[in-house]
Amino acid sequence: MIIPGADSLRWYVAIAEQQKERACAELLIGRGVTVFLPMLTKWRRPTKTGPRERYEVCLCPPYVFVGFAAGREEWQAVTTCRLVRTIICDEQGSPRAANVRQMGDFIRRASDASVASRQARQTAFKRGDVVTVAIGPFAGRKITLAEVRGKSAVFLASLFGASDVPVSIALDALEAA
Question: What is the pLDDT of the chain when averaged over all its residues?
Fold first, then answer.
């Protein structure tokens, strides 16, 4: 999803209710807010012999990114949304704007992840392994796995001013470092 004029907007991070990111984004869009919700397309086979089905998962739960033109922040539309728990703020309690260049790069990388072809990758990782993220908004970043659960892993990242934020990522998006 490419957002026209994304580089000219001031981006903020709203934290949605758990597993309600898509509904939250739809409510905000209905209120006229520019929203970026990075999604990752996955495939599953619901039955052993059935056809594969495509589905999407949120790439960065529980974050919903909201963009405003400079000086036109419509906070009431965001803060009164019933699915927004909070907004990431600075030390003074004011909403913290994301770095414009970093946010533009993040949007482009997340868009690339949704169309990237996935090759078979090593998925036998364990806690403490240092790996490289192969696709998505964290592509090229070396991370240390804090936890491995089934087909996904968790690492701690510094995102938009918050440190040690747990981020879940699919094991097949990782490569040995």
Answer: 81
Ordered structural domains, the chain, with CATH: 1-115 (3.30.70.940), 118-177 (2.30.30.30)
Dump pLDDT digits (tens) for 65-82: 998 887 888 889 999 999
* Residue 149 φ then ψ, to 5°: -130, 110
Q: Which of 21, 24, 18 is nearest to 40 (CA)?
A: 21
**Closest alpha carbon to 144 in 162, 161, 163, 125:** 125
Instruction: Please tell me the chain's helix, strand, coil percentages from 3-state DSSP, rounded to the nearest 5.
Output: 20, 40, 40
> Which amino acid makes up residue 123?
T
Spatial distance between the Cα atoms of 172 and 7, rounded to a whole number of angstroms: 30
Which pTM does this prediction carry? 0.63
Dist CA 50 CA 92 (whole Å) = 54
| Residue 176 · residue 161 · CB < 8 Å | no
